[in-house]
Amino acid sequence: MGFFTRWLSGLFGSEATEKIESEIGGGRDPDMLALKMLAIQTAVGYIAAAVGQCDFRTFQKSEEFKGKEHFLWNYSPNPNQNSTQFLQDWAEVLLYNNEALIVEENGSLYVADMFGVVESGTQKDVYTGITVRGKALKNRSADDVLYFRLNNDDVQPLLAETCGQYEEIIKAAIESYEKSSADKGILSINSVARGKLGDNYEKIKADLLNRRFRDFFGKKSSVLPLYDGFTYTPHTRNVRNVSELNDVKSMADEIYNRVGQAFRIPPAMLRGETANAADVTENFIKFSVCPLCNMLQEEITRKRYGEQAWMKGNYLMVDPSNVEIGGVFDAAAKIDKLISCGVFSIDEIRGKIGEPLLGTPEAQTHYITKNYAEIQEVGKENGEGSK
Questions:
Q1: Count of domains forming the chain
Q2: Are residues 284 and 379 in the same domain?
């Protein structure tokens, strides 16, 4: 069972999963379900791709150090995946299932396909039933795994209910649109025709209504021969209602809006709109990508480094700047201004932009340019007396 199938099972119930999958494949009313799934998969794809571009920076004694841990997270977490594939896999599992588990096996990291947890109150939880690529692994203590939970409450049932209401409105609008633009007419059959056809009347009428009229309406150019006594009068076709099409588009956009809210993605980004791309991307990184980066670096540092190592300056930081447009370079002028007017020191600024602190006396000194000096002092330096 794949991640998407398992997510469907959690969303609609295990008994309904098989039915839903069959409907997507060509059963009943797949378009409504497909619209919602497309919005969700688009959201998950954006987040997974962004997380896959993040840089994992490792530090020893507060200085950046590229060793085994750096190679593990940035290049090769396991023999079967590179880091981008691994992180996208993790993000998809987390977003679909609301939780994810990373386990270490023989020095490699893997995202668990399935797992259970036995909560032990104030004691360490135990993770059971762990499977990776179909292989069962032994039970693990909480200290031996990296566990991630997206939300305290699973938003999937709420999302399913909300989107379901919009889908009903879309379905009604589509049906109304199709009815208003459908070919309709009145077939009149007089008693003379019935008498002439005799026992074949019902058979001929059924063939005319069920087959010949269908072929007649379904072709661009066609001729329909009728028996003597049969008269077909076309019904005036209604002008297609543009407002109904707008209703369909509006409700489809609402589904994208609700999915965007659930995954903290700007709805404009999900809909593929390019206006204000920089602002949209900034909000996407701030509210969708950065929380996942914080979740990763906190869990990795506390489990794979520990408190004692952290106090010595050994830790891992997940840097999302590769995803940003411009990033710190766009803020260069503002950074210069904050330092030059003495509000922040160099280390204080570095801490705010996510860079490691230098810890040197120069980096912790507050500077102020001569622009901010008193006018009397400037006059003295220029050889002018104060006035």
A1: 3
A2: no
Structure confidence by residue, pLDDT tens digits, 151-184: 755 556 656 665 565 566 666 666 666 666 666 6
What SS3 state is found at 145?
strand
Q: Are residues 177 and 299 in the same domain?
A: yes
Q: Within the chain, where are the H helices? A: 3-12, 14-26, 30-52, 68-74, 83-97, 156-181, 191-197, 201-207, 213-218, 242-262, 267-270, 277-284, 290-300, 307-311, 332-340, 346-352, 375-381
Give, rounded to a whole angstrom, the gap between the first and last alpha carbons of the chain: 84
Q: How many CA atoms lie within 13 A of 178 on its CB side?
A: 7
Q: What is the pLDDT of residue 40?
A: 81
Kindly state whether residue 126 falls inside one of the protein's structural domains.
Answer: no
Backbone angles phi, psi at 64, to 5 degrees: -65, 135
Q: Do 12 and 81 fall within a single domain?
A: yes
Left, alpha or beta for 256 (phi > 0: left; psi -120 to 50: alpha)?
alpha
Nearest-Å Rg of the Cα atoms of the chain is 33
Residue at a domain's end among 319, 342, 360: 319
For the chain, the residue count is: 387
Cβ neighbour number for residue 197 with a 10 Å cutoff:
18
Burial 325-342 (b: 16+ CB within 10 A, else e): eebeeeeeeebeebbeee
Predicted TM-score of the model (pTM): 0.63
User: How would you label 253-280 residue by residue, b for 16+ Cβ within 10 Å and e otherwise?
Assistant: ebbbbbbbebbbbbbbbbeeeeeeeeeb
100 vs 112: CA distance, rounded Å: 7
pLDDT in tens, 121-149: 889 999 999 999 989 999 999 999 999 99
Same structural domain for residues 223 and 89?
A: no
Residues 79 and 198 in one domain: no
- Asked if residue 136 is part of any domain, the answer here is no
Give the 3-state secondary structure of residue 112: coil
Inside any domain, residue 193 = yes
In this structure, are 178 and 261 located in the same domain? yes
